[in-house]
Amino acid sequence: MNWGVMILAAGEASRMGKAKMLLPYKDKTILGKIVEEVSVLKPNLVLIVTGHYHQEISSIIQSHKVVLVHNKDYQAGMSSSIQSGLTAMQQQCPDLQFLFILLADQPFLNEALLRKMIQMQTETQKGLVAARYQGIVGTPLLLSAKYFEELNQLKGDKGARTILHQYPDDLETIDFELGWLDIDTAADYERFCEILNNENAD
Fold first, then answer.
1. By the 8 A CB rule, do 31 and 7 touch?
2. CA separation for the pair 127, 163 (Å, rounded)
3. What Å distances lie between residue 16 and 34, 112, 131, CA to CA?
4. How far is residue 35 from each of residues 30, 94, 123, 161, 169, measured CA to CA in Å?
5. Distance CA 182, CA 184 (A)
6. Which of 71, 59, 66 minimizes the C-alpha distance to 12?
7. Residue 118 CB neighbours (<10 A)
8. b or e along 48-84 (b: 16 or more beta carbons within 10 Å of the residue's beta carbon)?
9. What pLDDT, in 10s, does the model give residues 176-201?
C-alpha cells in the first residue's frame, strides 16, 4: 500500500502568539514528537505543510525523511494548506493510495492510534477512517485516493471534515480519547503539561 502523511502546521497560532507546534514536549517539540510517532509506521512519505512559522519549523525539523512544503497562501485557510500539501505529495509519490491528514497541535497523536486506523481501513475497506472525541468526528483522518479530488474542491478555512459529512456510508470512526486537547492557548498547553505530568507520575 502506498500511503503518505500530511501534517498541517501552517497557521499563525494567533491566540497563542507564538509557534505552538514548537512548544516543548519532554525533550522534543510537539511537532517533533508527532513526526517521530508517524515515522515508526514507515509511510512512503511524511510531509509538513508550513506557513507563518516556516523559518522556525525548517530550522528545527531537519530530517531527510520529512518533506517541508511552504504554503505562502496559508492565510486563505486550511483548504489551501491541504491542497498545497496534496499537490506536493502527488508529485513525490504519484501512486499514492491513502493519505493521513494530521494537525500539528494535537499533541497526543501517536503511532498506536494511527496503526489502529490503518487496521480498521483494512478490515472494513472504508474510504474514510476518522478519529472521534467528545461528539466530534475529525482529525486524524485517513482517506483513500478517491477523495483527493474532493480535497481539491475545498474552499476557505474548511478542512477535510466537510468530506466526512458528505459520505457517512463510507466512514468508519475510532475513539481518540485525548483528541479534544489541541493547543490553541497558553491554558491549553498548561493542561497538556498537567496530563503529561500525571501520566509520568503513575
1. yes
2. 11
3. 19, 29, 25
4. 9, 22, 26, 22, 31
5. 6
6. 71
7. 17
8. bbbbbbbebbeeebeeeebbbbbbeebebbbbbbbbb
9. 999 999 898 999 999 999 998 887 65
* Residue 109 contacts residue 34 (beta carbons within 8 Å): yes
pLDDT tens-place string over residues 110-154:
999 999 999 999 999 999 999 999 989 999 999 999 999 999 998
For the full predicted model, state whether its pTM sits above 0.90: yes
* Percent helix, strand and coil across the chain, each to the nearest 5: 45, 25, 35
Radius of gyration of the chain (CA): 16
Cell of 122: 483494512
Cβ atoms of 163 and 128 closer than 8 Å: yes
